[in-house]
Amino acid sequence: MEPPIRVMARVVQELRRECAARRFDPAAARLEIVDRTIGDVNLRLVTECEGPEGGPGDYRMLADELGIALPGENLNGYVATGGVYRWLRDRMTTAERELLAAGYDPRIYDIHGIGNPILRDWLADDLRPWGFTLSAANIALGLGATDCIDKVLRGLAHHKTPGAILFATPGFNMPELQATAYGYRLHPVRTAPENNFKLTADLLEQELATNPDITVVYLTITNNPTTFAYTPDELSELQSVLSKAQVYLLADLAYVGTGPPDDDRERMRRLTADTDLTPYLICVGSFSKTHTLTGERFGWVAFGDTAFAAAMGASWTNSVGSLPGDWQLRYMAYHTLFRRDPGLIPKIRAFYRLRRTSLREQLRQYDAEHGLFDHIYLDDDATIYNWSRLRPGADCFEVLEKTGIAGIPGSTFGYSDDYIRFSVGISPISFDGSHPRTHCEAGHDLH
């Protein structure tokens, strides 16, 4: 079954192909059909540049600074040096020597299948400021967060009777398809706008009491699609309910790291504070959204209990067999890059903030012209989305028709089509508004 998000993205591709077949002006087609469906950030398409060219606000440089751009590649007027591109490859060689010296050969079959111990130890160290006291034995690698969630659900289903899995809606829907494949009963729980679309402790307690077959609660700590994040107090209240019920918490951290660092650190410290929940805590993260490395598929799982982590290892062995050698080396190289240049993550956060702010302003202007929205929500300064409520009778196709923007209907996330999600990832926000125009002082107007 094709995920609904990809269906909408495919609609956009088909529209663009039809425009090409009819020989419409390509530039006009790009302006009239804007893909805001899938949340991938295409750094090659970034045009935003605040301040001097080549300065800290020149976001076109991100593709070069992250080693994505090829040497000499033209990034909307900025020419990539290729320095990081080459450095990553040199660093992969160094990483391979380090692994061989430690007795791990990435070129042969790994019978455990969970990834090399050096990288897993580095990731465990990354989690210590969040309150985790883990070792490499608690960490398993995966090909992105989605792959990690799939392996966890597979392992849990094998470990005990699958039972039911609770999904708070609206929420990321891919794990629902995975859970169905492994025999879980899906148990969606609708959240309320007045609670910022978050699962409350009272609602969770009620659902667990009336549905004793629930064995897993899937929770996105910083939510896709709503862009709201659980506060530390909200997480403590949920923990209290879960630890008493002894139900597994599968915490999706895909967007923890896109928001203010102090806020993310505090909510994660609170999440790990309840030692009664530790044996049932499973956290999944990746570099995809927080580090704009969606195509690299760098994911990880942290299990609160070491013995349980060992038991889950069979799911890795039986699914992937052995994780790719070069992929692990590149993962290690990128991990070293972010330690070497700690300013990269704040720059990515600032870039996301710029685009979210610009998108909200664009939506307000379209709303003034077409009357499309009932409420354009703010966010918790996190994620790469906007979540808004349409006026009665409007839907995502009317938005596409009148604005050229393709969003994702709320039903995709287990909610209603009164809501729509837009991504800021794929392309810049270009419009004439009252906010400062993005430009380079030393260069050309990028709009």
TrEMBL record:
CDD domains documented for this protein: AAT_like (cd00609)
Top-rank lineage group of the source organism: Bacteria
Pfam families recorded: Aminotran_1_2
Keywords: Aminotransferase, Pyridoxal phosphate, Transferase
The Aminotransferase class I/classII large domain, residue ranges: 133-426
Keyword Transferase: yes
UniProt keyword Chloroplast present: no
Gene3D superfamilies found in the cross-reference section: Aspartate Aminotransferase, domain 1 (3.90.1150.10), Type I PLP-dependent aspartate aminotransferase-like (Major domain) (3.40.640.10)
InterPro entries, per database record: Aminotransferase_I/II_large, AspAT/PAT-like, PyrdxlP-dep_Trfase, PyrdxlP-dep_Trfase_major, PyrdxlP-dep_Trfase_small
Needed co-factor(s): pyridoxal 5'-phosphate
Family: Belongs to the class-I pyridoxal-phosphate-dependent aminotransferase family.
Descriptive protein name: Aminotransferase class I/classII large domain-containing protein
Organism expressing this protein natively: Kribbella hippodromi
